[in-house]
Each structure stands twice: as structure tokens, then as C-alpha cells.
Amino acid sequence: MTTSAASQGIPATLLVIAKAPIAGFAKTRLTPDFSPREAAQIAAAALLDTLRAVRHSGVRHRMVAWTGDLTRAELSDELSTALGEFDLIPQRGTTFGQRLANAHADASRLGLPVLQIGMDTPQAGPALLAVSATLLLECGDTVLGPASDGGWWALGLTDPRPARTLAEVPMSTDRTGELTREALSRCGCRIRRLPILTDVDTAADALAVAEEHRGHFSRTVEQLRHHAPA
Q1: Share of residues in the chain with pLDDT > 70 (%)
Q2: Any long-range contacts for 89-97 (C-beta under 8 Å, 24+ apart)?
Q3: Which superkingdom is the protein from (predicted)?
């Protein structure tokens, strides 16, 4: 693919962990404020903005670890076109932590540092991703982006081996970020901190991020919000 063949840009791999935005499968915590289909539409918009930010970040290699049936996804045509510019790999593992660890291991086979993000922070634009990848290269070790709910939105490693510890960290808790930092520190990682961002998990998160971010995500949230029943 052209992304793998690219010879210019920041010498790193930007890895997106993504799931098909299908009603009842993605962003279920946005209900009941939004219907299951509306929640999936918001997830699709967040993913499209994330993929666009990665494409324009200047990072050399772009990869998506994917799960779910793309043909059943909201905005499937737009997503298929956007994903065509990425190296696509399947997620592997039973738990979310295992899938994160395995995706990082798969991405590291390109031989470059890996910056891993999710599809829940559409406000992480190209400039922030470029700065984060550059900081990873400059520090030569580890970067971690905390999330305001206690989790994390980005993890960058120059040595892929500590990523194995993600399989043992409880995910989706208010201590996930803290426990991830502790686990990485036990592996000898020297961690540089990235800015704190809000993960879009709840309706309140979606409204807050839509206020600070201009893009497909904010337009979708505003449209659905105005059409929601009183």
C-alpha cells in the first residue's frame, strides 16, 4: 500500500484501534440520550475525523487495527474510502487489553516506534498527533496521553515489548491510566506525558468535545442533538 511505501514524514507508525460503528455494537454508553443508531453515527463521525487527522499528521506509516463488519457500519462507504489509505490489520485477542497489546505488537513489525490511539478522541488533530509522535522519537522511550476519565487516549513506545503488559491492565476504569503508567514503569519505561483529552464515552462527553472541536463529529452531534425529542 502507499502508506507502507511512503519514504517521507515522521519516522513512526500511527496505529488506530477501531471497531465498526454498528448500532448496538459501538458507543453503547451514548444511549439512551441518543438511539443506538445515532450512537453509531456519532462513532462513525469520530472515526472519520480521527482517520483524517492521522492522514494529515505527517507520520510516515498509518495502520488501523479493526474489528467488526464494515458493510454493516454507519457511513460504510465513506469509511471504506478512508480506510483504503491505511494498512488494515485484524484485532486479535479476547479482552480489550489483549487486543491493544497484540495490535501494538503487529504494528511494531514495521520496525518503527508506534504511537497507538483510539477512535474516541476526534479532537486530537494532525498537529497534536505530529507533536506526540515527534516527542516519542525525541524522548526515545515512552509517551502516554491521559484521558480525563482516568483512562488514556494515546500510548507511544519505541520498544514494543512493554506493550505486552496492557493485556494485564484492567481497561475502561477510572484507574486504567494510573495502572498503565505503573505497569510500564515496572518494565523500566521512562514516560513522558501528553496533554489530557476527553474520551467520548457518554453523551456529556460527546457534547463537550463537540463544543471544542470542529469537524464531522461536531456537525453530527449538533444535528442529532437538535433533532432529539424534548
Answers
A1: 95
A2: 89/63, 89/64, 89/65, 90/65, 90/66, 91/17, 91/19, 91/65, 91/66, 91/67, 93/167, 95/167, 95/171, 96/171, 96/172, 97/166, 97/167, 97/168, 97/169, 97/170, 97/171
A3: Bacteria
pLDDT single digits (tens) 32-64: 999 999 999 999 999 999 999 999 999 999 999
Q: Give the number of other Cβ atoms within 10 Å of residue 69's Cβ.
A: 10
Length of the chain: 230
pTM value > 0.90: yes
Domains identified in the chain and CATH numbers: 2-225 (3.90.550.10)
Residue type, 72: R
Residue 33 DSSP one-character state: T
**63 vs 170: CA distance, rounded Å:** 25
Q: Give burial (CB, 10 Å; 0-12/13-18/19+) of 136.
A: buried
E-only strand ranges, the chain? 10-19, 59-67, 87-90, 114-117, 142-146, 152-157, 191-193
Secondary-structure percent of the chain, ordered helix, strand, coil, rounded to 5 = 45, 20, 35
Crossing angle for the helix pair 203-212 and 216-227, to the nearest 10 degrees: 130
Q: How far is CA 11 from the centre of its chain?
A: 19
